[in-house]
Amino acid sequence: MYRSTGLYNLDQFCRYCTVGKGKNRIYIMAKKFRTPGVYIEEKDSFPGSVVAVETAVPAFIGYTEKASREGKSVLNQPVRITSLAEFIAYFGSGFKSKFQLDNQKPNNDKPSITINGVDKVINYVKNNKAFMFPGLKLFYANGGGPCYIVSVGTYGDKNRIYLNKGELKDGLDTLLKEQEPTMIVIPDAVN
Q1: What is the value of pTM for the model shown?
Q2: In what side-by-side order are the strands of the sheet with 25-30?
């Protein structure tokens, strides 16, 4: 590069030059052309664009109603989904919790309901809650995008769900080969 100070005759210095301006300076750079003629140099008027990349892709690990895609089992396999409808197609819907209505005096520890003027307490059967489906409903209701699902067991028509730390850990281990997930969510860990 050569900085023009006005002391040189530019015609003598360079026949074909590119002139650029920057902070009150003029820069001149010689170009090499192989044949004589008219040359057009196009410059991008837009800077290089930034490509949007997902920065937070969660992986949900837990129990589902079913675990099959196109007739093949996806149990303990990370499956990438992009919508709640896709989750329902591969993994089914939520667990149907079983409960009993007891004629007890309502307290703050248990939920209650009034039927025909009679207060009843709702007693859920033990090992009878699953949080994967409600967690995914909330994820997509709040603008969720792509995520991974690892079903570690199915509840299908079972009356109870027994959480197994070993199954949850095995589900976590299956994610080691996946590059995209950046956070792990185990909704049933609070059960």
Answers
A1: 0.63
A2: 2-3, 25-30, 17-22
